[in-house]
Amino acid sequence: MMELELIGGNPYVGLFESQLQTSIEWRKSTAEDRIDRLKRIRSWINKNQKEIREALWNDFRKPEVETDLSEIFPVTSEINHTIKNLKSWMKAKSISTPLSMLGTNSKIKFEPKGRALIISPWNYPFNLAVGPLVSALAAGCPVILKPSELTPHTSSLIERMISEIFPNHEVATILGGVETSQELLKLPFDHIFFTGSTQVGKIVMGNAAKNLISVTLELGGKSPAIVTENADITDTAKKLIYGKLLNSGQTCVAPDYALVHESIYERFLDELIIAIREMYDPNYKGIIESPDLARIVNDRHFERLEGLLKDAISKGAKLEFGGECNPHHRYVEPTLISGISEEMNISQEEIFGPIFPIIVYSDLEKAIYYINKKPKPLALYVFSQNKGEVNQVLEETSSGNAVVNDCVLHFLHPNLPFGGVNHSGIGKSHGYFGFLAFSNEKGVLHQRVGLNNATLLRPPYGVKTRQIIKSLIKWL
Ligand code: NAD
Q1: 287 with 409, same domain?
Q2: Domain of 253: which CATH number?
Q3: Among 252, 299, 302, 418, which residue has the most ligand 1 atoms within 8 Å of its CB, making it the best to mutate?
């Protein structure tokens, strides 16, 4: 009854209600049941790889190789890893009994949270919709999935995939934009898994609070790279250019900007330019001709990037490389800028495109202070061959994840928790941590029948009870 009052008039109420029975039945689902669902997704993906590549190409000219590596592989690897480990993840965990609980025994049982809502972004539209779905199904949760409206080809393909594999009362896709999301957010789900911007993350959490729904928020922000004087300059430049230009910079964990020690600045800049040319213009035809550089997803984001660049230049930033913006192709040339200051918009907002500000620092303390003044990033990258420097950066900063002498790679590690902290996100995903996000860790205590330790604590509270409690406080 309560639910109906809360959600009256909502177009998705029928669908939502239809998943209630599933969520109750799936509490008893075995690892085999859940693995079977995952296998069906894997086999659909294997049969439809060409369609996935085409959809991504049509949405923003994503290169096939990048689709294979960053859309298909992370999902199939998530499925394979989950299939291999699900039985042990689901097993109730026995825990030790302290003296104060003598006579009892306890365990942690992982029960599915229940009906889950997954809202996903456009930048890795297949990976970031289906990846969380794998975790939800592993945990035993039915799902309503709302993919991004900005990548219509991929989102329609996801809808087709889901409808071919699952009935709506198990998993359903709802296509639509902001209004659709807002209607879905009114429903009293048991968990919401949102991937997107920090700004919309706040809206999602505000809505979830109305029904006290738990959330996983995978958000964005400005992920810094520190390049110290002890870094291998050539190696670092190649890795940063790859991480920055993958998906044309439209990656949540892309290095947003680099803080570079003054003693290596000039050489580092040269190496960055060499790396861009080697990767995206090996035959000197012009970077715009490279088939390996994705386009900006839509006109709004193209104009946003062009605006960031113009604003920075007009306020005194120096263009070190690139700078071409071609609206017909929604092409933004890989661009390096220096001399940026805090009043420029590029210093404040997540860049999310192929523009790379390089900031010079004179001592590591100052670089760390620069990072700590800003909201905690999703990822932090430190490039140095000096252990002391690396430890100093890791200990004196806070970020969702950190990588030493590389960037972006951690996303693909199945045993690492992935996610942000505060502004860059709440909760973790991937592998076991994704399974946990959709599970309620239910503590279950078994007591013996009849006389037991707890009976000694009952009223009337005499001298003996007081003595027992005193010793509990003193010794246990
Ligand atoms: P976005 O926040 O604009 O949109 C994400 C989803 O939210 C979409 O499905 C959209 O329809 C919905 N949405 C948009 N506005 C809404 C509103 N007012 N109310 C309810 N729902 C709304 O994000 P985006 O532009 O699709 O993706 C880019 C952002 O996502 C970047 O900030 C990036 O860093 C972040 N991101 C984070 C991760 C991660 O794993 N942490 C991964 C990819 C992208």
Answers
A1: yes
A2: 3.40.309.10
A3: 252
